Amino acid sequence: MNRPVISNLWLVVKKQIEVPANIKEKLRDVKGNVDSTIIAIAFPLNGIQDSSLSSPPTQPVFAYLPLCSYGFRFILQGDFEVPANRQEILHDNLWNEWLQWKMTCLLSLAYYQFRHLPDLLASSTFHTQINYQITPIQTIKFFLKFFPLQNESKPFFNKFVDESIKSLAGIIKLPVSRQNEKEETIIDWVAPSQCIIVQYAFIRKILSQDLLLSHFNSYYVHEQLMQECNEQILLKLGCRQLDFSDITQLIETSYKQKEQQHIKTTSAVEQIAQWLVCLDYSLQQQRQEINFKARESDTINKLKQLKIIPLKDQSQLVSVNEFDKYPISFPWEKSIKYSKHLKLVLDDIPTIDEQLLNFIEDKYPRRLDSIKRLLQNLGINKSHNIREIYLQHMLPVMSDQTRWSLKSESVLIAYLLCIYEYIYSQKSDLFENELKILKSKVLIKTRDNKFVSLGSPDVVVHLTLKYGCKDSLESLRLSNYQFIFISDDYYNEFCLTELFLKSHDVHSFVIFLKKLNINDFLQVDLNETRFIGVQNLPDTKWAYLIPKLSEMIHEPFIIQDFCCEEFNKFVTPSDANQTVDHELCVQLLQYLDRHYQYVSHYFAGSVMLVRGHQYGQNTPIKGIESSFTLSVRQHAWIPVVGDTLFKPSDVYLLPSNSPTYAFRRYIPHLDESKVSLKSLEFIHNILGIKSQVKHRTIFELFMKWSCNLDSQSLWDLIKQTETLDIIPCTLPNTFRQSCIDTIENLRLIYAFLASNDETRRFLSRFRLWPIIFIPRKQNTGDFLFVQQTFWTDPISLLSTQDIITDSNGRIPIQSYYNDDSILNIFFLEILHVELHPTIDDYLPLLSVDQDINKIWLIIQIITKLAAEQNKQKEVQGFSIDTNFQEQFCSLFDIENLRKVIQTKVHVENEQSSTHLAEFYHCSIDLIQYFLLSKQLISATHSADLSFVFARMHFVCVDRIDLSYCYGTDIIKTESKNYNKDTYIDEQSSKFYILKKFEHSETRYIDAMINFIVEDEGIRSQLLSYIKKLLQQYQNEGEKSLAMLRTNCTENYEPKWKIPKEIKKDVPSPPAIEEKTEKPEITRDEIEQLKDMPSTRRNRIPKKVTDEDNTSQLTCFPAKASTIETNEIPESKTKPKPKDSTERENPSSNANSTNEYHRESGDYHRGNHEHGISKNKTTEHTDENLDKNELNKDEIKQSKGQFVQPHAPMTFSNTTSLPPVNFECISFSTLPYIDSSTSPVIDGLPSADSLRPIATETDLATGRQGEQLVFGYLKWKYPNADINWVNQEVESGKPYDIHMIIKSENNREEFIEVKTTRSYDQNTLAVSIGEVEYLLNHPLNYYIYRVYYADKIELSTIKVISTIKTNLLNKHLKLSMTYESKQND
Q1: Helix runs in 721-775, H state only
Q2: Strand, helix or coil at 969?
Q3: In 327-457, which ranges are continuous DSSP H helix?
Q4: Range with the lowest mean pLDDT among 234-238, 274-278, 686-690?
Q5: Which uninterrupted H or E stretch holds 133?
Q6: More confident residue, 1140 or 6
Q7: What is the pLDDT of residues 780-798, one digit of tens each?
Q8: Which H helix or E strand runs over 255?
């Protein structure tokens, strides 16, 4: 055969392996006694010189004979166990598994053979077609082509492939090329771990072999291997791709080595572009790796820290992290048309230098998009969305003064205009939520060419007239202060552009500016505060709303409130050394008044429900005062006369026709010469400026002038002593306060204070203080104590004495106050100024060098007053000139002046009062300790009293009479109309008290107090203490006082002791039977009584206490020298002895309605104070229940008997009631009463003609009282509807008069009239119907208690109001009287 012979050259590598004993033992039945076997691998060498990328064909696996192919391009030979068909190797076969494991060394053995293959072929004797000049690179390249690719081999040999490559990777060397010192290319063989696979030549050029070797000790794999060998085989052997972390490290290392890289140059920009290209290539190559995302993120973070970013218009390279809050952008597209201000903003954004992108586009165009994505991953912003520019650029710039201070004016102006045009105008409703942030950041150019941030403290910018704001603060012309106004550039620069083409556009822009808090008015902020419930308000400024809102709201709510910090800054001094600008306050006040209608909504806040607010229902459920309103009221900024500033609540604006206009000089009054206010609503409702002077205000000023009491101290004192009727004076008797004012002004002040019930009551309580003004010069005067003055000097002896500087002399004041009737009543009845001088005022005149006629006149007055005022001892103890005494005694044949006058006491039916003796026996030493420990009395006075108390006995009697005598001649006997209630006789050491008052605590306490001390202030303290002792004694007995005695730390001697009474029976005189028959009075007797003068006298007051009828009723006006009292007398009197009855004034029993009247020396001088000496007594009038008090609705007559079916209820203010004041009306001061005539009532008989018949008298008196009240109400309320329901006939209604007062919103009053002829009868009867009606009408039912007199000017009315409340508070008491049926 002539066919050519084809010879194939194979490289066969064999190895004989020993069979392990365990394998041999296990496979003895299969393999017999096999000790070893041979394994082999064979490679075809025919294509070794080809440079093709194709791989050799696959070969079968042999088990001495060929089996199937397992994907290998070489032959594996082994003694494999195969099935009968010999198609494949048996799996799960121990022998086959062992053979496969042993074959893993064959590839490594073959590698060594391939390394020496050129030498082997050269020494071979076979003829082959292979060129013997093959290179080592060709052999290693050919060897690597035999490696199976991924998924090429069958699974059975996977373990063989992996283990074989792993073994080979540790020994194989791969070729690399490098430049030597001579710049010659040489081939080195290195381990695969030092080899880097890079397919693209431009990468190799950017990152040279020298950079790899110097930085990473690595080489690029030889280009032939890269071109012909599979990259996966190289990677399996240990080669690696170019890692982006390596590139990052290279860039970072290069940057640190070359500081000049911070400077942006063309070469630096090109180098950065190349680095970015390499990075992008590396990232693309490794994107499929499992942990690629994490490694990429780490690399990106490292790159952000490097200054490798060139920016437009900047000479330095920057890092992305430097702009993490201010993003860098790609250059904007120049093909798009932008507005002028938007171009300015786009040019202002940090932008990548176009040189970088242009270089990449020119050199590596295919990589441009990929590198842009890389730059975006670094944080470069590609989008030019204006909202993102606002959030990421404009806001950050405006927040950083260092940055915005470097910007041009046009750019900063463009910021605001772009925000308005492209963000706010487009979607203003969506931008509302961001306005709050913008208001704190935005920059505004001002008129003085400065830019300010609205978020800066104390920066408030205002609009001007240029922007169409007619109410601009620009109208204020201030020399010391300038407001900050917005620059006109926003309007001037853009008014003719597309932004402000119409006036409406300017208006919309102004609305936008106002939402930024740039206003023509002051900056007022609207705040909304949410609350879950009303319980969250206590610690807020709206705590005062809790009572009202608690009833209205039971769910979450919102308080909308306006506040103005700018105003607060204007009117609040920055520190203690600063003052508020007076001119600014004047201008602001004038501005607010002028523009009040425009800004009035800022003064009101509102409360609304959260539920409705969420659905756009903003209807408020309650209006409140805003914080702005509270601010204008709380600060002192209102200019007043005198160039000072006051709080509005302290300022007055009195109209010229105001009755208090004369008081302008005393109060802070608005300076109308500098500011003229027109809006009454703003003046009074918002500012709260007062248009009237309150009585309390003048009272506070008056007490400051007179007693040097500031307002706080004054009211604290009043509160602390509210239980006392008289406030003890804490000032020394020598205190004298001067005042620069005229008597004319003080007259007005006294009259003003006297016209108000409250201030009149306060001054009455301060009557122990220096509150009487006495002029010294035309414009000055002094305030004196009340006891240093009296009203009038009848004989003008004292008025001529210059005693104003003498602390012991008293001054008449009537001449200073022009005998004004109002002031007369005020001084005499309220301040208790004595009407006439006393003996104490005249006694000092005896020591003054006087004319002899005046001296005898003084003696005459002293002699008279000594008897009237019980001042014998004062006369006896007064030291006068010796010659004068001798002349006087010789003239009157008097042995000793001290023995001139004596006091005699006469009593009836003496009996020991064990009750009083026991109490004072147990308590007198405690009373002494109280007085001495508080230094209220002197030790000398205490010693004198101890002598009296050691002999004191307590006696109850039926009557006490006093008389005064010289020797045995009685020169003065007290009126029988006034028997004493109590009297302490110092000479006999006896304490007398009427039997019927033996248990009247008030009387026996007052008597003891008046005997011990004289000072009124000390008396009030002692009264409280003795009452406390008595209460403990009554509740717990003598033991309670003994416990108090253990607390006494001092032992005062001599100690007060009262001997204990020995109880013994004393027979009482026989009682005198009272006649029950009504007296028969003839017509002649009645006519005779009519002609007799009235015995009515002014009553002498007693000390008002809590127990003894303390509820003294006072009102203004009252008649001079009259005292109104609520004292209730005993309803029954004990029978008196016959001789006692005969001594009584016969006129006292002439009429059942007449009552006793007290008579004392105090009356003659108008003195309303308590006892002056120890021998003074407490007087009370014994009265019977007025028979006229029977209710006219319940008086019934029947045949043969008088029947009262219902026990009448009576209002009673007994001695145990607490104090209460009711209005008192005195007809002596009413102008419509003609006091010269007696009252005449049409259609009614006169009072005198009706007295004999009780029932007719009651009805007539009651009707006269109704007529009197009806006439008074018609005079007082001329425009009211007043209906006298009983005018024609008795109506039977529970009231007598019905009145509707139209001027007070048609307020109704129901008035029941109760009339009596007893001037101090305070007990009255009411029907069950009246009780029911007053309970149903607690606020508008009144009882007018008429104290009727034949002369109307002597009549008075007490108005008993709020009866139900006073009953509940125990100021009034209901009592019930039961009367049995009586025979005719």
Answers
A1: 743-754, 757-765
A2: strand
A3: 340-348, 354-363, 368-378, 386-389, 395-399, 401-404, 409-418, 428-431, 435-441
A4: 274-278
A5: none
A6: 6
A7: 999 999 988 988 887 777 7
A8: helix 244-257
Strand partners, 38: 16
- Mean pLDDT for 1358-1374 is 86
From 204-213, 785-794, 1025-1034, 1155-1164, the region with the lowest mean pLDDT: 1155-1164
Residue 282: predicted pLDDT:
81
Q: Do residues 310 and 317 make contact, with C-beta atoms less than 8 angstroms apart?
A: yes
Q: Nearest 10 degrees: CA dihedral of 333, 334, 338, 339?
A: 140
Residue 395: helix, strand or coil by DSSP?
helix
Burial (0-12, 13-18, 19+ Cβ within 10 Å), 263: exposed
DSSP 1111-1161: -----SS--TT---------S--PPPPHHHHHHS-GGGGS-TT-------H
Mean pLDDT of 950-965: 85
Q: Residue 815: which residues within 8 A CB-CB, separation 6 or more?
A: 799
Cα 398 to Cα 939: distance, rounded to the nearest angstrom? 86
DSSP single-letter state for residue 6: P
- When pLDDT is cut at 50, 70 and 90, the band that residue 1376 belongs to is confident
pLDDT > 70 fraction of the chain, expressed in percent and rounded? 77
Element containing residue 868 per DSSP (H, E): helix 852-868
Asked if residues 95 and 152 have their Cβ atoms less than 8 Å apart, the reply is no
Percent of residues in the chain assigned helix, strand, coil, to nearest 5: 40, 15, 40
User: Which structure tokens are listed for 369?
Assistant: 């998009």
Q: Minimal CA–CA distance to 291: which of 232, 236, 244, 230?
A: 244
Identity of residue 336: I
Q: Which two tokens stand for residue 22?
A: 């365990």
Instruction: Identify the CA nearest to 1262 among candidates 1364, 1353, 1189, 1358.
Output: 1189
For residue 1088 the two structure tokens come to 């005779």
The pLDDT tens digits for 1002-1040 are 888 989 998 899 888 898 899 999 999 998 898 888 888
Question: Do residues 790 and 836 touch, judged by C-beta distance below 8 A?
Answer: yes
Please choose, from the candidates 612, 720, 749, 632, the residue with its C-alpha nearest in 3D space to the C-alpha of residue 683: 632
CB count, 10 Å around CB of 5? Answer: 5
Confidence at 1149, pLDDT banded by 50, 70, 90:
very low
End-to-end, the C-alpha distance of the chain in Å comes to 189
CA–CA separation, 1191 vs 1169, rounded Å? 37
